[in-house]
Amino acid sequence: MAEGANTTPAYAAAGVDIAAGERAVDLMKKHVSRTTRPELVTDASGFAGLFRLDVGRYESPVLATSTDGVGTKVLLAQALDRHDTIGIDLVGMVIDDLVVSGAEPLFMTDYIACGKVVPERIAEIVGGIAEGCVQAGCALIGGETAEHPGAMAPDEYDLAGAGTGVVEAGAILGPDRVREGDVVVALASSGPHSNGYSLIRHVVDQAGLDLRSHVPELGGELGEVLLTPTRIYAKDCLALVSEVEAHAFAHITGGGLASNLERSLPPGLDAVLDRGTWTPAPVFSFIAEQGGVSREDMEATFNMGVGMAAIIAPDDADRAIALLADRGVEAWSMGYVTTGTGRVRLDGDHR
Q1: What distances in angstroms separate CA 249 from CA 78, 125, 241, one per listed residue?
Q2: Start and end of every PurM-like C-terminal domain (predicted)?
Q3: Fold exhibited by the domain 18-43+59-168
Q4: What value does the mean pLDDT take over residues 160-173?
Q5: Could you write out the three-class secondary structure of the chain?
Q6: Closest C-alpha among 256, 331, 332 to residue 295
Q7: Given this chain, do its domains 18-43+59-168 and 175-347 carry the same CATH topology?
Q8: In the chain, where are the structural domains located?
Q9: pLDDT score of 1
Q10: Residue 205 phi/psi, 5° resolution?
């Protein structure tokens, strides 16, 4: 715990429970052990996570790093007292940014701040982070739990993380590889992922919605649907890199599809996308209808059903979609790259 290791009556009276922190560490060990990789090196002191980089695998290895949190989605987890999936969201937000460059994720660290350490709750959160790391193929090599009485209410917490990966210098993906005629392949999202939840909570509050109510058009309880964890694409993206000619990826997070995809386009090329090639999941139309949110605002806030976009050489597009289908990821061609000014053009209407 960040607050220190000395247990004193005065410290306990101030609201810091060192014993609870130590129990939380014991409970999370079984989760962390699921994320091991052969490159891990034991640090007996526990102050740092150690990872041996096998430089023999690379001619010119470049490290990639990313850091993020999960935003106000944590408030829904707290409201529903459901803490086992929010860690998956954290890994998705961190690692799927990192893999956009073509980097293989190696390891991740996490940071949890809370008003009061409840060991079982902390272990649930870390269990989710560990599950996310398993899905991403990386190790969880360290973390920190900090108890902040007075700064946060006893049931409040927030979490953040950082990840590190490696990519061959000559294999870094990005706008410089994109060519006219490339195909933009969409990888379906599992829902809003971890973006737009301030708007979602505003809609829930303004419309007087009950998070525990069953919503027929969503096929389940509203809160459970909204807590659907972020899909993690790391292994799928790396599979594409190894099997087809992938030129760039775009992780569709805050700001929506257009603004994120534009980051992966060079100045002289546009991506022309057809809205009619897919139908966003019902949760998006539910949010729009309940909140009176315009299509423009929805598309500027949410991923609208596309969690990751891959820019693929035209001859490999069908093969990429088939490969993703074999991996259980719904994917489709939603557009193409043409001459322009580095913008995304959305044409057509959703079915």
Answers
A1: 33, 29, 10
A2: 179-342
A3: 60s Ribosomal Protein L30; Chain: A; (3.30.1330)
A4: 98
A5: CCCCCCCCHHHHHCCCCHHHHHHHHHHHHHHHHHHCCCCEECCCCCCCCEECCCHHHCCCEEEEEEEEECCCHHHHHHHHCCCCCHHHHHHHHHHHHHHHHCCEEEEEEEEEEECCCCHHHHHHHHHHHHHHHHHHCCEEEEEEEEECECCECCCCEEEEEEEEEEEEHHHCCCHHHCCCCCEEEEEECCCCCCCCHHHHHHHHHHCCCCCCCEEHHHCEEHHHHHCCCCCCCHHHHHHHHHHCCEEEEEECCCCHHHHHHHCCCCCCEEEEEEHHHCCCCHHHHHHHHHHCCCHHHHHHHCCCCEEEEEEECHHHHHHHHHHHHHCCCCEEEEEEEEECCCCEEEECCCC
A6: 256
A7: no
A8: 18-43+59-168, 175-347
A9: 43
A10: -70, -45
Report the 10 Å Cβ neighbour count for 215. Answer: 18
| Residue in the structure block whose two tokens are 């999960």 | 70
The pLDDT confidence band at residue 28, using thresholds 50, 70 and 90, is confident
Which residue carries 């030129």 as its tokens? Answer: 247
Could you give the CA distance from residue 195 to residue 199 in angstroms, rounded to a whole number? Answer: 9
pLDDT number for residue 33 = 80
Percentage of the residues of the chain whose pLDDT score is greater than 90: 83
**Tokens at 128, concatenated:** 């989710």
| pTM to 2 decimal places | 0.92
- Using CA atoms, how far apart are residues 237 and 305, in angstroms rounded to an integer? 17
pLDDT tens digits for 233-263? 999 999 999 999 999 999 999 999 999 999 9
Q: Which amino acid would we find at residue 27?
A: L
Task: Kindly report the number of other CB atoms within 10 A of residue 5's CB atom.
Answer: 8
